[in-house]
Structure formats: structure tokens, C-alpha cells
# Entry
Amino acid sequence: MRSHKTSAKLYEFIPLYGNKYIEFEVKDCTRVCIILSKTPAENDDMYEIIISGDARERSRIRKICDEGRCGGIEKRLNFDLKYCAFWISLENMAIKVGLQGEEEAFMSLTCVCESSELNFISFDAGDTGTWKTLPLNTGKPIDLVTTKGMPYQFIRVNKEDKFYFEVSSRKDAQLLLTTTPKILPPLYKIIIGELENTQSTIRKDCSKYLAYVYTPYILNDNEYRGFWIDFKEDCIKVGHLNESCPFLCYRDKEMPELLYLGVRTGPNAKGMWKLHGPYEVTQQYMNKDNGPPCCTRTSEGKPRCT
# Structure
């Protein structure tokens, strides 16, 4: 994976997809702050890891609670963060941190929750630093629930990969592609099962229709339905799992670099999600003969086929 500049203003959550051993490198920083979380939003089950490169600050692991930071462990350990590589282990009810190439952790903390339930990670290497994770190995889906009125839950995505997911809802599965983990233009909004589960659409900046297609009963609140999103080469495509042909697409020659995906359901719908990310999954119940055609319509009503 490539290096990233980070900011302390926002948590930029990366899904771990069941990985319990994470290796990463940092460069040109004085401290690294890592957040581990159950969900891609602030909550009561978050842990903070500080790796210090400054003799005036200790390295530590501690839980984040309503009163701020509480509990945890501190050690007078400092590292040369001009370049350094580390690992994090999330097994056996513990968070462990060690140096790459060394088996023994230099810090560890027993978790209040099951450490394997910490599904998301966020890095902050300061204004001058960069971080890079090594490729993740496994592909266990992340379960997420979106309730009525819940805001978008943002995660970091890679435009070179298809994003696979399943959702169970009676209507209005909404996905937002953005350049930041905020609802700020430019952004592209995908709604599956809009208008009481009768159509699916792509909009730009939450208003202008770019493409739509008639998709009656595409969602079901009694079973998961699977989809994928592809947004490389200036084209957004949405398709069913097990089908290579998208049922909804739009090409934009001025598409920015989209780095985040937000998910939620509409104001009157609850959703159960399984986020598979870049790890492909198959479903036996998908029926190609009943799927929508590989064609969308623009806002002018003209067919647009892939």
C-alpha cells in the first residue's frame, strides 16, 4: 500500500477484515497515534496506541472512554521515527505492539472487550509524517448495522479494488464516495432500492441525477443481497455479486481521486451490512435471469450501456 499523509482532525478508519496481525511503517514523524475501534465512528470501545519518538513523551496503550483517556499502560520508550517498522497483534483479549523482526512485544494491554472485535484502525503520523501498512492477509467480512437516521459510516477504500458488500434492508441502501471522510463536494451518492425499493441511482453532490435504472425488489429485509462497486478509470459501476456486468454505471472525465466510502440507510430504513471490501464473495441465491439489464439511463432519459 502507498504512504499516506495524515491529520489529527479526523479518524480515517481502515477496515481490518478479520486481520489480527497488522504490520506498518512510519517515516519522518515524532509520534504515531493509532486508534483501534469496533465501528468506523467514535464509540465507547476504542483504544489509543501512542508510539513516541520524543524523550519528553512516553509510549502507551489506553482505552478511550467518555471521560477521555482512561486506564492503560505507559512505558518510557522512544523510537527513531525517521523510519521504523512495527506490528500490532489483536488476539487473546490483548493488544500487543512490537518492533518488526522481534517476536516479543514491547507494550501490551488486556482489553475490556474481545480484541478480535476491533475491526477498524486509524493512523495519525502528524503533519510531516507518513505511514504505510503491509498488505492484509485474510478476508473476513465486517458486520455493520445502520439504524434510522444514523449518519454515514466512513471507511478508507482503494480505487484499484472492487468493493464487495452485502446488505439486508427493505429500501434505500446508500453509499457515498468522497475525497474526505466528510459530506463535502465533490461526492457521488449511490442509492440501491430508492423510491420504496423500485429504482437505483447515482447522483453527484447529493442532488444531480447522473444515472438511474428500474430495479424493483432489489433489496430484501429478510435476506442479504450482494453487490460490488468499482470506481476506477473515471467510471462508477455497481453490479450484483456473481455478475461481471454492472446494472448501474456513470463515467465522469473530471472525477477526483475518491478515497472514502460512507454507508448508511435512508431515514426510514434499517440496514444490516456485511462489508467484504476487496475480498470477493459468492452467493448462491443470485439469479442472473432476474437481474436488471446492463444498461442505465441518464438524467435526459437516454440509454447508456456498458
Remarks:
- Confidence is low (pLDDT under 50) at residues 5-9, 284-306.
- Residues 36 and 187 are 27 Å apart (CA to CA).
- Residues 194-197 form the longest helix (4 residues).
